[in-house]
């Protein structure tokens, strides 16, 4: 059995849970802070995120919705560059807002694999910044 590790990003966001949920599940909003997508909030539904292709990467992330509990939890497969992980979003009401937790599980450990975890760590920090900016300007 191969050991894996999980990346966790957690933020308290001072916006209603409904607003944060829309930003996680509506394709037009996802495109503003994450990537272009054909996401539909239905368990078992495959979808893609699309970004600008780069050397060694076609810019496509292949996904499939695994679980969706409105306003509470969303998880999906996230496959790119031969690596498949699972992204899980958890929303927990807190004060006037929500604690938003993102876990991306399944990063391999061992020689030559750190670039995946390091790249995801950088990417999710950037994405969370985009999400917070979006939430600050949309109703």
Structure description:
29% of the residues lie in helices and 42% in strands. The protein has 139 residues and is of the alpha+beta class. It has one domain: Alpha-D-Glucose-1,6-Bisphosphate, Chain A, domain 4, CATH 3.30.530.20. The protein has a 7-stranded antiparallel sheet. The longest helix has 24 residues, at 114-137. It starts with a strand and ends with a helix.
How many angstroms separate the termini? 47 Å
Return the structural class.
Answer: alpha+beta
Low-confidence sequence ranges: none
Overall radius of gyration: 15 Å
Number of strands: 7
Query: What fraction of residues sit in β-strands?
Result: 35-45%
Strand arrangement, major sheet: 1-7-6-5-4-3-2
The average pLDDT is: 95
Question: Outline, from the CA principal axes?
Answer: globular
CATH class: Alpha Beta
Helix fraction by DSSP (H/I, runs of at least 4): 25-40%
Largest sheet at a glance?
Answer: 7 strands, antiparallel
Query: What is the CATH superfamily label?
Result: START domain
Q: Please tally the helical runs, counting DSSP H or I stretches of 4 or more residues.
A: 3
CATH architecture: 2-Layer Sandwich
Task: Pick out its properties.
139 residues, alpha+beta, Alpha-D-Glucose-1,6-Bisphosphate, Chain A, domain 4, seven-stranded antiparallel β-sheet, 3 helices, globular
SSE map:
Blueprint: E1 4-13, H1 17-25, H2 27-33, E2 36-37, E3 46-50, E4 60-69, E5 73-80, E6 83-94, E7 97-108, H3 114-137
Antiparallel strand pairs: 1-7, 2-3, 3-4, 4-5, 5-6, 6-7
